[in-house]
Amino acid sequence: xxxxxxxxxxxxxxxxxxxxxxxxxxxxxxxxxxxPQGGIKHGESPVQAMFRELHEEVxxxxxxxxxxxxxxxxxxxxxxxxxxxxxxxGHYRGQKQIWFLxxxxxxxxxxxxxxxxxxxxxxxxxxxxWISLDTVIEFKRGVYHQALQELSAYLSKPxxxxxxxxxxxxxxxxxxxxxDQA
Length: 182
Prior knowledge:
Layout: E1 7-16, E2 22-27, E3 33-34, E4 37-39, H1 46-58, E5 65-70, E6 75-78, E7 94-104, E8 121-127, H2 141-151, H3 164-171
Parallel strand pairs: 1-7
Antiparallel strand pairs: 1-4, 2-3, 2-8, 5-7, 6-7
């Protein structure tokens, strides 16, 4: 399913843990790492496609994650001709993606790369949010950077043990007082 300009509708998923580290999947039998992503089927909304792809590629269900945000508009990338099947050349240009930022509320052991008969990834790891994109195929790097940049606004600071707020909560029942008035 292509739009008028030759872009295939798609969703991308940036999954973060409680430390704001991102899920990084290694493509089956390749040395390329990427975020989960996949096409939107006819009749599917971007949210429905995101949950389907999340299960197919990572084995997670809606109860394992919380949606923190999504990109406002489609982000597009063009696929170089040598990656396009001959019969699609001249019609297919690339992908347009809605990106979602999800927080894992389940556990690491809920991740299952073998949830379907055709896995996309054969390994995974948590990486820093602003990971180097050197291991991402070159033509996707710009969209990855755009998605990370736009969605970073939805991140809260990672939990840091007993900071000022935790110490204050332990010593006072007045939780409404701003920290700068301590």
